[in-house]
Amino acid sequence: MGRLELVVLSLACCWAVASSAKLGAVYTEGGFVEGVNKKLGLLGDSVDIFKGIPFAAPTKALENPQRHPGWQGTLKAKSFKKRCLQATITQDNTYGDEDCLYLNIWVPQGRKQVSRDLPVMIWIYGGAFLMGAGHGANFGNNYLYDGQEIATRGNVIVVTFNYRVGPLGFLSTGDANLPGNYGLRDQHMAIAWVKRNIVAFGGDPNNITIFGESAGAASVSLQTLSPYNKGLIRRAISQSGVALSPWVIQKNPLFWAKRVAEKVGCPVDDTARMAKCLKVTDPRALTLAYKMPLAGMEYPMLHYLGFVPVIDGDFIPDDPVNLYANAADIDYIAGTNNMDGHIFATIDMPAIKKDNKEVTDEDFYKLVSGLTITKGLRGAKSAFDVYTASWAQNPTQETKKKTVVDFETDILFLVPTEIALAQHRANAKSAKTYTYLFAHPSRMPVYPKWVGADHADDIQYVFGKPFATPLGYRPQDRTVSKAMIAYWTNFARTGDPNMGHSAVPTHWEPYTTENGNYLEITKKINGSSMKQQLRTHYLRYWTLTYQALPTVTGDGATPEPPMGDSEAAPVPPTGDSEAAPVPPTGDSEADPVPPTDDSEGAQMPTVIGF
Q1: Which of 2, 167, 187, 421 is 20 to 30 A from residue 211's alpha carbon, by CA?
Q2: pLDDT in tens, 120-165
């Protein structure tokens, strides 16, 4: 036998041994499921992938999810299922299916034996509580939320799933007839299914981390606060959204329920009759009865999205600010992108994205007044003065446009995230708290050079796209992705982003209300990336000065609905929310100080993530 033949034979023998570790058919509470085993190289590492496992029975419109009855034989879990029914981007048709509550699992495998006791990371997608799917957008047969890179690089199990969105997921009459939060209950069902079944896939049911972005990040936050998840969740990561964000809780769900009912011909004078009618209405008609205007809006876009979570007295039993004791033992990371507000600023003020268009002082003042309605003229003038104080006599257009973006970033993301961190820290028992600022600039070629990290820019790095599709990325992008996967998966494993399976570029210090520590994530993460007291001046303003302004009551607190389509009318605010603690502002006080009234004012429903 020649030398070449011996080498080939040796490799073949090694390959046979190395490729032996795989799960095969797995027994779950519903029956056997069989996925696929994907080889990752000559060394024998692989990943078991299961797509389309039902975690609940096919849904009934505007009803809570129920356990799946199970199946006979072995379920072939080899392809993604359809997303939950939702409107297309043009909002003139629907896609997806009512039968949509399925999940997907990625399990990394070594060469000799199947994995055991792996940490579990469950992803909750964003999309304004209006759109999205567990597999995400498809780019050249590489889905955005494909869990392979996280699973194999971090040696964790990754789970993604679908949940109901739009009217089918969040329509509520504000009473027991249609309590709402069906999408949140879908999420809970998926988490509970993983808790009961993941050991069969090699996961540790006592080490579950939930993570998500935008509406998914807010969902993560809400799930940690809900009493329904007691004992299910060990850790959580919120990327650009928290339960306290001004766009998360709908204060007047009946306003929006009536508009959908009117569109589909259901009665609106009695919620019991309305609910009975809506439940037998074609789900596609319900979905299309609501349209989100994205151009020509009289008010900021936040006033136009009506179908988001509600305080139902059960799943969300109280204002989220009062529920943080429920997360006292859950380790938590929450952070933002440094220009999270950019995409929303371009919708509210299209001149932001056009070099040949100017932003005027009047444009900015109108935007500010639209987001400070319940504080009236004093609130608008106060906020406008704070954000324009650094302008020169003739500020450049770049300065003005960046100010608009900073304003929306602060009010929609940064300030509520800092308040949530302070609340988590104030209530924590054994739990640890960390925060970050993602500042790796957007790769969108149509954006001006001054644009930083836009909303949802972080997702591609967390899911390892620079490695999965390397031709579309630079070496510096892979550096960012490697670091984020390491921090995220270490945190899932140990509760400390610095300790676990992967080396990290620098030590990430925990957050406290005294130090305000945060990690700035860029292409060069080193010792100087640890910083303190993010945007202290503006946090002081929103949590102290703005809070102290008197709240406007009566007609002045509610914008007049635009004429035309009924779905375009903004939601009238329904009063002050519960007081929230003030995040660290550079002083030495250890405990957050509760303000005396509502900090964010107008009802600001959810924003669009990807």
Answers
A1: 167
A2: 999 999 999 999 999 999 877 789 999 999 999 999 999 999 999 9
> Within 10 Å of residue 298's Cβ, how many Cβ atoms?
18
Mean pLDDT of 476-488: 97
d(CA 80, CA 161): 10
Quote the pLDDT of residue 42: 66
Token duo for residue 163 = 């949940």
Q: How far apart are CA 267 and CA 275, in angstroms?
A: 9
Please enumerate in sequence order all residues whose Cβ is within 8 A of that of 555, keeping only pairs 6 or more positions apart, or say none: none
Token couple for 246:
């001004």
DSSP 8-state class, residue 107: E
How far is C-alpha 22 from the geometric centre of its chain's CA atoms? 32
**pLDDT-based confidence at 44, cuts 50/70/90?**
low
Q: Exposed/middle/buried for 244, CB within 10 Å: 0-12, 13-18, 19+?
A: buried
**Could you report how far apart the first and last alpha carbons of the chain are, in Å?**
58
Dihedral angle computed from the Cα positions of residues 250, 254, 255 and 259, in that order, rounded to the nearest 10 degrees: 120
User: Which of 199, 130, 121 lies closest to 161, judged by CA?
Assistant: 121
User: Distance (Å, rounded) from C-alpha 603 to C-alpha 320?
Assistant: 15
Tell me which of 203-207, 301-305, 593-597 is least confident.
593-597
Contact of 210 with 236, CB cutoff 8 Å: yes
Asked if residues 417 and 242 have their Cβ atoms less than 8 Å apart, the reply is yes
CB 439 within 8 A of CB 520: yes
pLDDT for res 554: 59
In the beta sheet, which residues pair with residue 108?
47
543, 419 contact by CB (below 8 A): yes
| Range of 6-10, 303-307, 457-461, 550-554 with top mean pLDDT | 457-461
Amino acid, res. 117: D
Q: What's the token pair of residue 118? A: 């792996």
Which residue in 161, 595, 173 sits closest to 415, CA to CA?
595
**How far is it, in rounded angstroms, from Cα 608 to Cα 95?**
18
Catalytic center residues: 214, 340, 455
- Beta bridge partners of residue 435, listed in sequence order: 334
